[in-house]
Amino acid sequence: MAEAVARRLSGGASASAMRTEALEAPACVARQLAADADGMAAAAARLRQPPGGIVTLARGSSDHAAQHFAYLSMQRGGRLVTSLPPSLLTLHGARFDGAPPLALAWSQSGRSPDLVDSVKALRAAGAWTLALVNEPDSPLAAAAASTLALHAAPERSVAATKSFIAQLVLGVRLLAASRDDAALLAALPSLPETLADAATLDWSAAVDAWQPAQQLYVVGRGAALAVAQEMALKLKETCGIQAEAWSGAELMHGPLALVGPGWPVLVLAPRGPAQASLVALAQQLHQRRAAVLLAVAPGTPGCEGLACLPLHSACHADLDAISAVQSFYLMVEALARARGRDPDHPPGLAKVTLTR
């Protein structure tokens, strides 16, 4: 499967490492789905009975992947998952009452000192720790009790693409295995083909619309909010656009006041309970004469009169946001180049960020 998907997407790639690596995501996911069955089963068994709850530790894109996992875990399993700021441990030496949590540390490089030190501190306090990382020989993997690899292969572009998609998928795999979720487990094998299809969709309307943009809102809801946050980050770092991500509900609590004629807004509306409200919000923003682009599957009701970007639906609605970010990455790389920027080398940034 991985080789077939790679052959399908190999033609026409530019010299940009970001584009090349984004096109590698379907093959990376295929490799991951075929690997680590025993490690996944062992980690899933741990998640079924976390004595002190579940916490996540991550930064940047990895934190968005962790938030995606957390929302789906709370939505589908009713189990609270808390994002733990590493600085509570590394700067303040905080200690927590009660049974130690199960701690999931998300990273691509596995080399950020604050994550490594946080995992060491939690493990010393009795927590079971799991590193979800692209480099299984990294310091983070060595610090954790167990490791699950992303299998995304080396990534050269500063802007993470295939590794972020691999993190999203690894989180869904872990959740599905821990819940014995037959529907999600059955949908996962088709995801590489879904991503390959998503990579062929035409999002050039966004390149045309946003080439002169200075600010932009990205709106999502539910698990898709984490993907909206990732999209906003990529618009900042690769394109130099001051993009902010908002929940469709939170937008109404203040940020809407900024939206006037011409204000660019991307509304991400995959399938699910929030879709109708997001489409209605896009219509409301359109009536305010905002420059709205609605990312939605063709044929979705209520989209009349709106400019739309196509979404490719997966075999399970909870995987649609992963398909959306695959389409987005190729668009934002093209947008960066259209704005005269190098998507592989954003100014002032490095591939590995060493926070403490």
Number of DSSP-assigned strands = 10
Overall CATH class of the largest domain: Alpha Beta
Q: Provide the number of structural domains.
A: 2
String of helices and strands? HHHEHEHEHEHEHHHHEHEEHEEH
What is the CA-CA span between the terminal residues? 40 Å
Walk across the major sheet and give the strand order. 2-1-3-4-5
Q: What's the layout of helices and strands?
A:
Blueprint: H1 2-9, H2 17-33, H3 37-48, E1 54-57, H4 60-77, E2 81-83, H5 87-90, E3 102-107, H6 113-124, E4 128-133, H7 139-143, E5 146-149, H8 162-179, H9 182-187, H10 191-198, H11 204-210, E6 215-220, H12 224-239, E7 242-247, E8 264-268, H13 275-287, E9 291-296, E10 307-310, H14 320-338
Parallel strand pairs: 1-2, 1-3, 3-4, 4-5, 6-7, 6-8, 8-9, 9-10
Helix pairs in contact: 1-2, 2-8, 2-10, 2-14, 3-8, 4-8, 4-12, 10-14, 11-14, 12-14
Could you characterize the architecture of this molecule?
This protein has 356 residues and is of the alpha/beta class. The protein contains 14 helices and 10 strands. It has 2 domains: 190 residues, Glucose-6-phosphate isomerase like protein, domain 1 (Rossmann fold, 3-Layer(aba) Sandwich); 142 residues, Glucose-6-phosphate isomerase like protein, domain 1 (Rossmann fold). The longest helix is centred in the C-terminal third of the chain and has 19 residues. The N and C termini lie far apart (40 Å). The N terminus is likely disordered.
